[in-house]
Amino acid sequence: MKRVAILISGGGSNMVRLLESMTGDHPARPVLVASNDPTAGGLAKATSMGVETVAIDHRAHRDRESFERALLKALDAAQPDIICLAGFMRILTPDFIDRYAGRILNIHPSLLPLYPGLNTHARAIAAGDGFGGATVHLVTPELDAGPILGQARVPIHPGDDPETLAKRVLAVEHRLYPAVLRRFAQGDLARQDLSDA
Ligand code: GAR
């Protein structure tokens, strides 16, 4: 059974879907939810789902390295095999990523390699794209550039704004991330795209 830690910064709707998925014959179980923001709504949801949580406030640390040392201490204690970033909005240093190389997954709200970074939906709309979507990828030191494990796309309709598109994309994220995690936990690195999106 693989041990999964999830890192969040906000409401944690993807986290909830990942936690809900890890039951029955699933090859993984959640061992920790960690947030850099003590007020992240996802922390209470994880607690209510019976998962241990920890908040490590990045603002209480003088630099990124000090914050990451504290985060790594909590993570190492939980001994995760896999770390899922789920709306985790801090950039991780190469040292941190090295420690769990090949075992950190991220979900990003665009069809990578299009639109790494922030404001993905506004950029897709401004470019006149016909499709938006989400990508689950392995985390490497280069931002949002690691090997792609799965993608789901949605149409962009005339009149969409970043909020309407974000809502449509989030709905497919909720199916994509659990599907990719299940396969990844089984040791299957083949790319998995959601075909009906
Ligand atoms: C999701 O749309 C996720 O793709 C995005 O943040 C949202 C988190 O929602 N992640 C990033 O932008 C990472 N750079 P959630 O907290 O409800 O899961």
UniProtKB/TrEMBL annotation:
Transmembrane segments: none annotated. Pathway: Purine metabolism; IMP biosynthesis via de novo pathway; N(2)-formyl-N(1)-(5-phospho-D-ribosyl)glycinamide from N(1)-(5-phospho-D-ribosyl)glycinamide (10-formyl THF route): step 1/1. The active site is at H108. GO terms for molecular function: phosphoribosylglycinamide formyltransferase activity. It catalyses: N(1)-(5-phospho-beta-D-ribosyl)glycinamide + (6R)-10-formyltetrahydrofolate = N(2)-formyl-N(1)-(5-phospho-beta-D-ribosyl)glycinamide + (6S)-5,6,7,8-tetrahydrofolate + H(+). Keywords: Purine biosynthesis, Transferase. Its EC number is 2.1.2.2. (6R)-10-formyltetrahydrofolate binds at R64, M89, R90, I91, L92, N106. Residues 2-181 form the Formyl transferase N-terminal domain. SUPFAM superfamilies: Formyltransferase (SSF53328). Gene3D superfamilies: Formyl transferase, N-terminal domain. It comes from the Bacteria. N(1)-(5-phospho-beta-D-ribosyl)glycinamide binds at G12, S13, N14. The record marks D144 as: Raises pKa of active site His. Belongs to the GART family. PANTHER family: PHOSPHORIBOSYLGLYCINAMIDE FORMYLTRANSFERASE. Catalyzes the transfer of a formyl group from 10-formyltetrahydrofolate to 5-phospho-ribosyl-glycinamide (GAR), producing 5-phospho-ribosyl-N-formylglycinamide (FGAR) and tetrahydrofolate. This is Phosphoribosylglycinamide formyltransferase.
